[in-house]
Design brief:
Distance between the termini: 77 Å
Number of helices: 5
Radius of gyration: 30 Å
Length: 110
Protein backbone atom coordinates (compact mmCIF):
# COMPACT_ATOMS: atom_id res chain seq x y z
CA UNK A 1 0.00 0.00 0.00
CA UNK A 2 2.83 2.40 0.83
CA UNK A 3 4.43 1.91 -2.60
CA UNK A 4 1.14 2.61 -4.39
CA UNK A 5 0.55 5.79 -2.37
CA UNK A 6 4.26 6.72 -2.58
CA UNK A 7 4.72 6.90 1.19
CA UNK A 8 7.50 5.65 3.41
CA UNK A 9 6.61 2.73 5.63
CA UNK A 10 8.24 4.40 8.64
CA UNK A 11 6.04 7.48 8.17
CA UNK A 12 2.94 5.27 7.99
CA UNK A 13 3.78 3.43 11.20
CA UNK A 14 4.59 6.70 13.01
CA UNK A 15 1.15 7.98 11.96
CA UNK A 16 -0.49 4.70 12.97
CA UNK A 17 1.07 4.61 16.46
CA UNK A 18 0.63 8.33 17.20
CA UNK A 19 -1.64 9.01 20.22
CA UNK A 20 -4.97 10.76 19.72
CA UNK A 21 -5.02 14.53 20.08
CA UNK A 22 -6.81 16.26 22.96
CA UNK A 23 -9.25 17.85 20.53
CA UNK A 24 -10.24 14.48 19.06
CA UNK A 25 -10.65 12.95 22.53
CA UNK A 26 -12.84 15.89 23.59
CA UNK A 27 -14.92 15.49 20.42
CA UNK A 28 -15.53 11.80 21.17
CA UNK A 29 -16.45 12.63 24.78
CA UNK A 30 -18.93 15.27 23.62
CA UNK A 31 -20.42 12.82 21.10
CA UNK A 32 -20.99 10.30 23.90
CA UNK A 33 -22.70 12.99 25.99
CA UNK A 34 -24.88 14.02 23.02
CA UNK A 35 -25.94 10.41 22.50
CA UNK A 36 -26.80 9.90 26.17
CA UNK A 37 -28.80 13.16 26.38
CA UNK A 38 -30.58 12.33 23.11
CA UNK A 39 -31.74 8.89 24.23
CA UNK A 40 -32.56 9.99 27.78
CA UNK A 41 -34.93 12.59 26.30
CA UNK A 42 -36.73 9.86 24.31
CA UNK A 43 -35.15 11.14 21.07
CA UNK A 44 -37.14 14.39 21.24
CA UNK A 45 -34.31 16.88 21.90
CA UNK A 46 -32.76 18.69 18.96
CA UNK A 47 -29.51 20.62 18.80
CA UNK A 48 -30.72 23.72 20.74
CA UNK A 49 -31.84 21.74 23.79
CA UNK A 50 -28.85 19.40 23.70
CA UNK A 51 -26.54 22.43 23.46
CA UNK A 52 -28.20 23.93 26.52
CA UNK A 53 -27.77 20.64 28.42
CA UNK A 54 -24.10 20.37 27.40
CA UNK A 55 -23.41 23.97 28.43
CA UNK A 56 -25.04 23.30 31.80
CA UNK A 57 -22.77 20.24 32.19
CA UNK A 58 -19.72 22.46 31.62
CA UNK A 59 -18.90 21.81 27.97
CA UNK A 60 -18.41 24.94 25.85
CA UNK A 61 -20.04 24.11 22.53
CA UNK A 62 -22.10 26.08 20.04
CA UNK A 63 -25.41 24.96 18.58
CA UNK A 64 -23.89 24.72 15.09
CA UNK A 65 -21.11 22.40 16.29
CA UNK A 66 -23.64 20.35 18.20
CA UNK A 67 -25.80 20.07 15.06
CA UNK A 68 -22.76 18.91 13.05
CA UNK A 69 -21.98 16.22 15.62
CA UNK A 70 -25.61 15.08 15.62
CA UNK A 71 -25.50 14.76 11.82
CA UNK A 72 -22.30 12.71 12.08
CA UNK A 73 -24.01 10.45 14.63
CA UNK A 74 -27.18 10.23 12.54
CA UNK A 75 -29.43 11.68 15.27
CA UNK A 76 -32.59 13.67 14.49
CA UNK A 77 -35.25 14.81 16.91
CA UNK A 78 -38.66 13.20 16.72
CA UNK A 79 -41.45 15.71 16.68
CA UNK A 80 -44.60 14.76 18.55
CA UNK A 81 -47.80 15.84 16.87
CA UNK A 82 -50.16 17.85 19.01
CA UNK A 83 -53.71 16.65 19.62
CA UNK A 84 -56.20 18.22 17.25
CA UNK A 85 -59.96 18.00 17.73
CA UNK A 86 -61.60 16.98 14.45
CA UNK A 87 -65.22 16.63 15.57
CA UNK A 88 -67.40 19.69 16.01
CA UNK A 89 -70.43 18.57 18.02
CA UNK A 90 -71.58 22.12 18.74
CA UNK A 91 -72.59 22.88 15.17
CA UNK A 92 -75.80 24.57 14.03
CA UNK A 93 -76.26 22.47 10.92
CA UNK A 94 -79.56 20.79 10.08
CA UNK A 95 -79.76 17.24 11.44
CA UNK A 96 -81.63 14.95 9.04
CA UNK A 97 -84.50 12.82 10.32
CA UNK A 98 -84.48 9.04 10.22
CA UNK A 99 -86.51 8.81 7.00
CA UNK A 100 -86.04 5.06 6.52
CA UNK A 101 -87.19 4.42 10.10
CA UNK A 102 -84.34 2.01 10.71
CA UNK A 103 -83.63 0.72 14.18
CA UNK A 104 -79.92 1.17 14.87
CA UNK A 105 -79.98 -0.63 18.23
CA UNK A 106 -78.99 -4.28 17.93
CA UNK A 107 -81.05 -6.76 19.95
CA UNK A 108 -78.43 -9.51 19.71
CA UNK A 109 -75.09 -10.01 17.97
CA UNK A 110 -75.30 -10.86 14.29
Amino acid sequence: MCTVLKLSSSGYFKWKNRPFSKKLLLKEKIKEQITSIYFSSKQRYGSPRITFELNSLGYKISRITDAKYMIELGLRSKLSKKFKVTTNSKHTYLVVENVLDRNFIAKKPA
